[in-house]
Amino acid sequence: MSGDTGRDPDGTGPAGTGRAPDRAGHADGPAVQGSRADVLIAQGKHDDDALGVLGYKPELKRTLGNFHTFAAGISYISILTGTFQLFYLGVAFGGPAYWWSWPMVFVGQLMVALCFCELAARYPVAGSVYNWAKTMGGPHIGWLGGWMMMTATMVTLSAVALAYQITLPQIDDWFQFVGDGTGKTDAAANAVLLGTVLILFSTLVNAFGVKLMATINSTGVFIELIAAVTLVVLLAAHITRGPSSVLTQTYGLGSGESLGYFGAFLAASLASAYVMYGFDTASSLGEESHDPSRNAPRAILRALVASFIIGGLILLFALMAVPNLFAKQLGTEGLQYVVLATLGSTIGEIVLWCVVVAITVCVLAVQAAGIRLMFAMARDNNLPAGSLLARVSPRFKTPVVPAVVIGVVGDVILVININQPQIFSVITSIAVIMIYVAYLMVTFPMLIQRLRGRWQPAEGKFSLGRFGLPVNILAVLWGVAMSINLAWPRAEVYNATGPQHWYLRWGAFLFIGVVGLGGFAYYWLVQRHRTGVLAEHRAVVADEQPPVAS
């Protein structure tokens, strides 16, 4: 950052705060002697340093450990939810060879994650994407990035909740409460019903405090990881063909098209792009975690790498084990079909119940991230009724109103689409695109700061060193390319079956345009004149705001 910020030379705290050294004589570390209580108190003060730099006082309760933050990141990505929800899409558009999009997306998202790790080490605060965009790009970019991310989170909540419909009726027809599943809108209507119940459950859990959410989430993630590894082993034991026959099989898709199979592959890559995001959640819980500047970067990378390895093996072994590689059900029923056909009904249903657990904790994590983001924007008075939205419950030590608002909006999004058979692909696509765009509003301003020589990682914490600039450039190029690919008006992706459905084909551009331009117009004309840390959330000592780009 620029050198006129008035901060200490190490960039970790405001100048002149009079911060006392610890017992070892160091001004930047927790006490290492005395009682355990003394150590925890000193560590808590150290954890809150980043809040003081940003002008906030600590209000949320620090109760989360290493596994909790890791679980938050990996449950948002959710290996089982994403692979089981979108496998059919990849096979339908690109054939088994679509698997190559999994490592491609991983490498691109890894570039983004590495940039986030540097930011998480320096600014491990609630609403990470919003605060990072604000610090790197200025208040206007920060608001727009936060607004896009917050809106995307609410849409994502609805999209993930829809995954119940893809799994529960496969376990038992009893879960098809609306019709028998054969009607044109039976699946969509039933998905809304199941999704609404799930969002209600998630809202209640998140409103009762981060400890309850983290406990359920961590338990669910533990079950998900055990189930995912077990699934890898079981599928490996049923392999019937080698990887070469799978990874080169394209079903002849793309033939006759201008881009050939490459065009089909780009469409199929959406199935992987729709899974590997949300790893920033590990940092968004930074104000409720112990030693977040060290643990958050590790959690981000561990969540992404674990998801890549386990998810990649599930997809590969599923294609190698399915009895008939050319079964049409691969492109319609997806991994649910593979599991039941390969492992049998009993083991298959056990695995599918674990998928239900994964979907549940994924919804919990998505809503938890959205709550922290809304809270972060509200305490900067960057949302209507900011004081109400930023209020922390004295009993549960969590912002309750954002939990309710996000839950209600998520259910409304479902209800207004209750009779739309296109609900699955349209909602999922729009949500993911908005998140990729929000990520760009962090990585691109960060690149500008690097080029200007104003970015310095937190001293002694996670740093890319001389690789920072090339990694950042790749992150931006990846974000731009994948955002365009995701939003491309493919009729087959958005189920635009005729000219009358043109609005579905262009749904991403229309929805994101309305949300982005409409939201920013409101901010520019109304909210920006009120912005500033609310008095009840302002740091007692700090007398300045964090540095922002001019």
Description:
The chain is mainly α and 550 residues long. The chain has one domain (68-532): Amino acid/polyamine transporter I (Up-down Bundle), CATH 1.20.1740. Helices cover 63% and strands 0% of the residues. The chain is built from 23 helices and no strands. The longest helix is centred in the middle third of the chain and has 35 residues, at 345-379. The radius of gyration is 23 Å and the shape is globular. The chain starts with 35 loop residues before the first helix and ends in a 25-residue tail after the last helix. Mean pLDDT is 83; it is low at 1-44.
Any idea what the radius of gyration is?
A: 23 Å
Report the end-to-end length measured between terminal Cα atoms.
Answer: 11 Å
Largest sheet: none
Return the CATH class.
Mainly Alpha
The CATH architecture name reads Up-down Bundle
Beta-strand proportion: under 5%
Judging from the principal axes of the Cα atoms, what is the shape?
Answer: globular
CATH superfamily heading? Amino acid/polyamine transporter I
The helix content, as a percent range, equals: 55-70%
Low-confidence residue ranges: 1-44
> What is the string of SSEs from the N terminus onward?
HHHHHHHHHHHHHHHHHHHHHHH
- Determine the oligomeric state from the structure: single chain
* CATH topology descriptor: Amino acid/polyamine transporter I
Count of domains = 1
Which secondary-structure class do the elements indicate? mainly alpha
Count up the helices. 23
Average residue-wise pLDDT:
83
- The strand count comes to 0
